[in-house]
Amino acid sequence: xxxxxxxxxxxxxxxxxxxxxxxxxxxxxxxxxxxxxxxxxxxxxxxxxxxxxxxxxxxxxxxxxxxxxxxxxxxxxxxxxxxxxxxxxxxxxxxxxxxxxxxxxxxxxxxxxxxxxxxxxxxxxxxxxxxxxxxxxxxxxxxxxxxxxxxxxxxxxxxxxxxxxxxxxxxxxxxxxxxxxxxxxxxxxxxxxxxxxxxxxx
Length: 202
Description:
Keywords: Transferase
Number of domains: 2
Domain GST C-terminal: 67-185
Domain GST N-terminal: 1-65
Structural class: mainly alpha
Strand order of the largest sheet: 1-2
Number of helices: 8
InterPro entries: Glutathione-S-Trfase_C-like, Glutathione-S-Trfase_C_sf, Glutathione_S-Trfase, Glutathione_S-Trfase_N, GST_C, GST_superfamily, Thioredoxin-like_sf
Largest sheet: 2 strands, antiparallel
Function: Conjugation of reduced glutathione to a wide number of exogenous and endogenous hydrophobic electrophiles.
Number of strands: 2
C-alpha cells in the first residue's frame, strides 16, 4: 500500500499457503540475513521484517517525519499498534480462542483507547503530514473492525482517520483494484482472519 501511495513501480511476489515448497526453495537462496516473509529487495538492499520494511520506505520517501521527536513518536505508535495486533494473533491461534476472547476484550479496547488518545485531534499520527506508521494504523484499524465490528464507534477520531485515509486518491484506487489483498487477515489456520475465504456475513 505504501508503494502504491509513493508511486514507485514494484514487482510483487505472493506465496500461497499451498506453495510452501517454492518459498522454502527460495528462502535461503535470496541472500537475506534473516530470511522471512514479507521481504523487500531494493537494489543491493535485502530487507525482512515488516516494521523494518515500512521504516526503510518511510525514510527513503519522506514519510518518516522530521527530527528525533517525530522518530520517537512514529516508533512508539507503530509499536503500540502492533502490540494489539500481536495479541489478537496470539489468542486466535489458540484452540481455546472462543473461551479466551471475552477476557481479552478489555485489553483490546484499552489499546484502542491509547491510540485514540495519542491521535487526539491531529489529522495523522504526528500532525498534518503522513508518516509510515499511518499506513500501519490504517491496515490494523481495518482488521480491528472485522475482529470486533463497531469497535471504532467509541473513538470518532480513529473512525475519522480511517475514512480520511482510505479516501486519499492513490489509496482509494489501490483498495478498489485487484492488487489489494482483502483476505486472509491472519495466519491461515487462525480462528479469526484465517482460511482461504472470509466467513459469510450473518
